[in-house]
Amino acid sequence: MQNKGRDAIALLITMMFVIVISVAIGLGLKQINEATSSIKEEKFSYQTALLLEDVLKMLQTSQDLQTIAENNDSIVDFNLFLEQTQIIPFSTNGIDVMIHVSSARSKFNISDLNDSRRANYLTQYLNKYMINSEYVSILFDLINGIKSDGSYNSAIFEYNPFLFRDYLVSYKQLQRVNEFYKQEYTDNSIENVDFTKLFYFGPKSEVNATYNIDLNYATAEVWEMILGCSKSRAEGLALHDDMYEKLEDIVLEPEEKSRLNAYKYSFFEPFLEIQVEIMQNESEAKIEFEYDIRQKKGYNFVYEI
User: Fold this and answer.
1) Rounded to whole angstroms, how far apart are CA atoms 137 and 132?
2) Is pLDDT above 60 for 7?
3) Can you give the residue range of the structural domain that contains 46?
4) Per residue in 145-174, pLDDT tens?
5) CB-facing half-sphere around the CA of 287: CA atoms within 13 A
6) What does the alpha-carbon distance between residue 299 and residue 152 come to, in Å, rounded to a whole number?
7) Tens of pLDDT, residues 61-101
């Protein structure tokens, strides 16, 4: 009986020892995998930074962009460049890269909302899609800084106390605003509008202090808001074949011209919006930034890795 008891104890000790060893090996393998994954992520981040430098250098040394920078009236050259570089795909060292190039002045800068006419036109546009006028009041809170007396138009900062409130930083920030609106007013109509095609996202800076909408690249959503016209007419203005060089090139009704005068606009704004998508196996990165053609500088960088 004693031998059987000792055998049972020995077997139990052996099993426990095997379990401990198995757990130790498992933890060790997990740490190795995590370390390997961390190294891969660091390497991918480093490669992403190098690729971004290459993209900036490509822009800075582009002869086409140099020509555009030197010619203030190079509307046609600018349009030709955008047509030829809308999408640039390439691969290097096992990394797939996709570059998207577009005008950085095709949307409405929400920082310019502090004007009664512009606020009214935006309200009209949103009402058209069944969005409550209070949404514009929330946007005012989002761009007018911290109020020492707490005199905000809405309760958004009670639910999001750390939400930035000097300008519209990114679409992610706006999504939090939209979620607040849906919950506060039990209204999902906010999903009827594609705000990525309506609003400009970015900080206040010397570059966009005099932000003008480039009417040659204004989106259909922007045209519809500005003119108060139908969606089909707005799409026609956005998809025009000939370049607009002056206001007379756009067939507008007197009321539409009056509405347009409430905005800052031009027919040539040499600023690019660059989107870089980088993919390697399961790793992905997305970088967005603006590029000032005349100054040869990139700014307003947004990274998603």
Assistant:
1) 10
2) no
3) 38-104+269-304
4) 888 888 888 989 888 888 888 888 888 889
5) 22
6) 31
7) 999 999 999 887 789 999 999 999 999 998 888 889 999 99
Helix, strand or coil, per DSSP, at residue 228: coil
Sequence-separated (6 or more) residues with CB below 8 Å from residue 215: 244, 250, 265, 266, 267
Bridging pattern class, strands 213-214 and 199-200: unpaired
The dihedral formed by the CA atoms of 29, 30, 34 and 39, expressed in degrees to the nearest 10: 0
- The amino acid occupying position 237 is L
Q: Cβ distance 212 to 103 under 8 Å?
A: no
Which tokens in the block code for residue 152?
Answer: 């905000």
Q: Verify that 282 and 194 share a domain, yes or no.
A: no
| Domain CATH code at residue 100 | 3.30.1300.30
Domain match, 112 and 87 both: no
Q: With b meaning 16 or more CB within 10 Å and e meaning fewer, what string describes 276-294? A: bbbebeebebebbbbbbbe
User: Is 123 part of any domain?
Assistant: yes
Question: What radius of gyration, in Å, describes the C-alpha atoms of the chain?
Answer: 27
Could you give the number of structural domains in the chain? 2
Assigned domain for 28 exists: no
State whether 212 and 77 are in the same domain: no
Strand 95-103 relative to strand 271-280: parallel, antiparallel, unpaired? antiparallel
Strand locations in the chain, DSSP E? 87-92, 95-103, 108-109, 199-200, 213-214, 265-266, 271-280, 283-292, 297-304
Asked whether residue 191 falls in the same domain as residue 224, the answer is yes
